[in-house]
Amino acid sequence: MTSYSVLPSGPRPTVIATWPGEWSDHSVKVTTLADTDQASELAHVLTRLSEGAWDAAAWLDTYSAIEAGLTTLIDQLRAPADKISEIHLPEGGYRHTDQWSFTDVKGPASGRTARVRERDDPRPAAHDRRRTVL
C-alpha cells in the first residue's frame, strides 16, 4: 500500500508517495500545489484510495476495475482541464462490490478528488499544464 503525505518545500507544498520496500521505505514526489490545504486533501484522498484498492484488489477480485479507474484519474490529473469528472468504477462481474472495501474505493475516485482539482492553482490557464505531475 502507498501512503501519501505533504512535504512543505518552500512556498509550495509537495505531495509525496511512500511505500514499503524490502529493506527500506521508498518515496517519490507526486506533485507540487499552490495551497497547503489542497495538498493535504489530495494526500488524504490518494491514501484512502490506495488503502481501499489494496484491500479490494486482494480480497474482492476487483483489481481490473480499480486499475481502470486509477488510469482514468491519472489521465484527468495530467490533463490541463480545470475539473476532474466523476469516475465510475464498473461493478458488473466482480465479487463483493457491495462490501465496504469496494465502496471506499469508489468514494475517493469520484467526488473528493474532483473538488481538489477545482480549487487548484488560481493562476491563468496558460500555467495550468505545470500544475499536476501525477
Automatic annotation (TrEMBL):
This is Uncharacterized protein. It comes from Prauserella flavalba. Residues 93-134 are annotated as: Disordered. It comes from the Bacteria. The lineage of its organism: Bacteria, Bacillati, Actinomycetota, Actinomycetes, Pseudonocardiales. Residues 115-127 have a biased composition (Basic and acidic residues).
